[in-house]
Amino acid sequence: MTEKTPTPHIEAKYGEIAETVIMSGDPLRAKFMAEHFLENPVQFNNVRGMLGFTGSYKGKRVSVMGHGMGIPSMAIYSYELFNFYGVKNIIRVGSAGSMNADLHIGDLMMAQGACTNSNYASQFLLSGMYAPIADFGLLRAAVEKAEELGYRYKVGNIYSSDIFYDENSGATAQWQKMGVMAVEMESAALYMNAARYGGHALCICTISDSLVTGEVTTAEQRQNSFTQMMDVAFGII
Question: N or C: which terminus of the chain has fewer CB atoms within 10 Å of its end residue's CB?
Fold first, then answer.
């Protein structure tokens, strides 16, 4: 592995990244986690502004890093972490749009499975449709931690979409009919890479807006105030 690092996207040397990485789409959210959760954080990446830091949390070594927006970006970073840096666990903490009337702004959505409109799975040459799912051990631990902390949460299917501005105005309703609870843009690729390359993965999202009620939050709120998902993620490492 050492001969393959640094990679084209991560300037860290092998050993500078912990076996558990908590990732966020926004690199500034990764910086926030480093500043507020880690002891003695050391920056290991700034390629393309995708910040990454390694430090300790309650005596355990852990890294935090951005992964960018969308399945291709998540796919690149998680691939390199699993394959070139010896990472075993990736927990994504991010925002999601509610597609469920009982999921409100600030609630946590734990993605047991991830539907997608992406073609990412085609590279694996499967003879049917693949169902990307979370690691059960991480999911169970996250649920127990949320219960312990008294945080509102739901567990279920999430929709990882390649499209933010969708021409198909009826798409949301069709996914809702299938019981899909929220939409984001990365988890399916993370779960597929974890399955293929021997890792463990979980997505914990905070609801930032609702496609049901029209509730919304600001970019600053999403960056700095969605800390409950971080409490859960750091609480299970």
Answer: N
